[in-house]
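Practice problem 4.
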């Protein structure tokens, strides 16, 4: 009998111990996941905790995270959540990866001078100035809303690159964007949920200097330098609109150092769908480059604009040729090297310094419309907005025999490494 009691007491202790282990195991797992910035809540959405900017946000449990590049001395990196599978879109059967990006605009917000909607529209006008021809970007809807205690601005639109939806949320003097490359109701619902769960912490930066350091100078909301330059150039730009397409490649260099990189300008349905670029970017090239590859200035030029573009280019640098006035675009970047883009420490008054050829201006990435395929979008326009043919640029070989020929060549899939006949060309 005594032995039986001992056995019962032992079994009771074991049962109690096992129950305790089961009870505390989720807490241990939660603590471990919290240290990595990720946990799963009761509704099965995952929660991301940002260690640098001290905010939390929920995202779909089946999506993956692509963390920001927080390398010191670079700015503008975004946090990306993306589907882990692609879908065939209605646009010519091209693969589509839904994504949501969260980041800081590089221009500050002043609630005493503009509403959130007024700020947002002014920013978009400045960001998209000179990128597109009239009518290429369509605004589908826009409205003000409230998220928590914050006023916010919600907009949907379409461009030659993508359909898009975004929500702008101010926090003190900073403005945050939550952006997706779709207007589909499924992804819009996800966007709205993500935005509604964004929570700022005690250490969330309230100014861009707090975010990027005391030497950082916010970008101007209105590009006064551009306005002054346009007035000074006067009729010169109109002459260049007709003359410069033939001259543009002369003096340029490819925006990367070696090794060889392949170019994909279109898709397998390019004869039917017209490739992936159109209008003022019809001669653009998409250059293969992994995230974080150093992007070099193609030609001596002025820094025209640096920041996030909601129409699909993502992180974008716009330069202006120092003598011909051509516009040079570098898109889908991961981060900006503002020390090289603005050597004086801030966007300067006219006349601004010329940024030398071959100096690093940014790092390549996957921001904006291209889904999760990392590459650099590169194109040149005349001052009048005409697309410039890049044929003849040193160290650039274009494959005129592939599919439809440049700029609509390329195939949807290529071997790894690619063979030249399935691409649109290569840099070397």
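Answer key:
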């Amino acid at each position: 009998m005594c032995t039986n009691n001992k056995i019962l007491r032992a079994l009771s202790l074991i049962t109690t111990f096992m129950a305790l282990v089961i009870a505390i195991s989720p807490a241990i797992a939660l603590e471990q996941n919290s240290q990595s910035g990720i946990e799963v809540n009761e509704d099965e959405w995952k929660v991301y905790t940002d260690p640098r900017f001290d905010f939390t946000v929920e995202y779909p449990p089946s999506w993956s995270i692509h963390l920001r590049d927080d390398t010191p001395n670079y700015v503008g990196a975004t946090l990306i959540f993306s589907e882990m599978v692609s879908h065939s879109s209605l646009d010519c059967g091209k693969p589509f990866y839904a994504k949501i990006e969260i980041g800081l605009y590089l221009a500050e917000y002043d609630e005493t001078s503009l509403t959130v909607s007024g700020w947002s529209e002014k920013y978009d006008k400045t960001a998209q100035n000179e990128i597109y021809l009239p009518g290429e970007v369509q605004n589908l809807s826009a409205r003000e809303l409230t998220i928590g205690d914050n006023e916010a601005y919600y907009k949907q639109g379409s461009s030659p690159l993508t359909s898009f939806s975004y929500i702008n949320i101010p926090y003190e003097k900073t403005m945050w964007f939550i952006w997706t490359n779709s207007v589909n109701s499924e992804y819009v619902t996800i966007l709205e949920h993500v935005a509604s769960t964004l929570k700022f912490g005690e250490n969330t930066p309230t100014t861009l200097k707090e975010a990027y350091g005391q030497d950082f100078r916010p970008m101007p909301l209105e590009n006064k330098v551009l306005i002054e330059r346009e007035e000074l150039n006067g009729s010169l730009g109109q002459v260049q609109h007709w003359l410069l397409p033939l001259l543009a490649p002369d003096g340029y260099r490819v925006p990367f150092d070696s090794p060889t990189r392949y170019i994909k300008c279109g898709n397998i349905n390019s004869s039917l769908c017209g490739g992936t670029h159109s209008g003022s970017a019809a001669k653009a090239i998409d250059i293969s480059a992994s995230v974080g590859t150093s992007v070099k200035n193609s030609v001596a030029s002025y820094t025209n604009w640096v920041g996030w573009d909601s129409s699909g280019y993502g992180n974008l640098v716009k330069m202006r040729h120092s003598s011909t006035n051509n516009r040079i675009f570098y898109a889908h970047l991961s981060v900006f090297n503002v020390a090289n883009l603005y050597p004086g420490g801030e966007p300067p008054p006219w006349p601004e310094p010329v940024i030398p050829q071959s100096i690093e201006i940014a790092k390549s990435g996957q921001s904006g419309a291209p889904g999760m395929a990392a590459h650099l979008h590169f194109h040149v326009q005349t001052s009048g907005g005409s697309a410039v043919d890049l044929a003849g640029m040193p160290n650039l070989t274009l494959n005129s025999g592939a599919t439809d020929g440049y700029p609509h060549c390329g195939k949807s899939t290529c071997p790894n490494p690619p063979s030249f006949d399935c691409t649109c060309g290569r840099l070397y």
